Amino acid sequence: MRKCVNIQSLPVLRPLLVAGLVLAADSQSFGLDYDHMMVLGPTSQPIGHFNYCREHPEDCISNVAGPLAPELTKEKWSQMIEINHQANMAVTPATDMEQYSKEEYWTLPSKYGDCEDYVLLKRKLLIKRGWPVSSLLVTVVRQTTGEGHAVLTVRTAKSDYILDNLNGKILPWSKTEYHYLKRQSTMHSGRWNDIADTRNIVGAIK
User: Fold this and answer.
1) So what's the pLDDT on residue 64?
2) N or C terminus: which one in the chain shows less Cβ crowding within 10 Å?
């Protein structure tokens, strides 16, 4: 599997309003255990996302609704499944070098794209369905091979779920075999937070 994102991205020096430890709130059960990531303070913005924000500033702003995590209804679960499948089928995998002759070019895909492009498309489609921006977070992970990857974290009051172009099945984040590094802030789409992933990844999926 080729490396998808640059984990050691260049830091972006921006003032952050929220720092320290943030824990997502639990709520009504929807058939799975309560399960949310533990998110720490501010961290560097991936260089690909920084450049994306320069081209699309309207997509990298403060989230007025705050850290809202909606209830996971059957309708919303169906939307997640539909959008994940739709995007995975619509986009053919291709690296940035193959398409643009450069690394780390994040953009909404038309026909071809790599992992972060899938994520941006899924995020856009779910926002169109009425999902709050604060619940749809681009997330950088490390695969068991050591290679970088990007997935979409969908925050709900029940759990943090992962939409992934490498896996058509939607899983709670803790049931995946990735090591979670950082994700977009719930308070501002152009800012990022570290993730405290202390799981034993071996055997995470049962």
Assistant:
1) 72
2) C
- 52 CA to centre of own chain: 15
| 26, 41, 52, 167 from 84: Cα distances, Å | 24, 29, 22, 10
CB environment 102-137: b (16+ within 10 A), e (fewer): eebbbbebeeebbbbbbbbbbbebbeeeebbbbbbb
What is the reported pLDDT for 23? 31
In whole angstroms, give the CA distance from residue 24 to residue 69: 8
202: left (phi > 0), else alpha (psi -120 to 50), else beta?
Answer: beta
What residue ranges of the chain have pLDDT lower than 70? 1-34, 65-67, 201-206
Query: For the segment 132-154, what is each residue's pLDDT rounded down to a tens digit?
Result: 999 999 999 999 999 999 999 99
Question: What is the structure's pLDDT at 3?
Answer: 56
pLDDT score, position 199: 84
**Bridge partners (DSSP) listed for residue 23:** 38
Non-local (6+) Cβ contacts of 68 within 8 A are: 132, 134, 135, 186
Domains in the chain, start-ordered, CATH in brackets? 22-196 (3.10.620)
3-state secondary structure of 45: coil
Q: What order do you get walking across the sheet with 136-142 strand by strand? A: 22-23, 38-43, 192-196, 179-184, 136-142, 148-155, 160-164, 167-172
Alpha-carbon distance of 111 to 92, in angstroms, equals 6
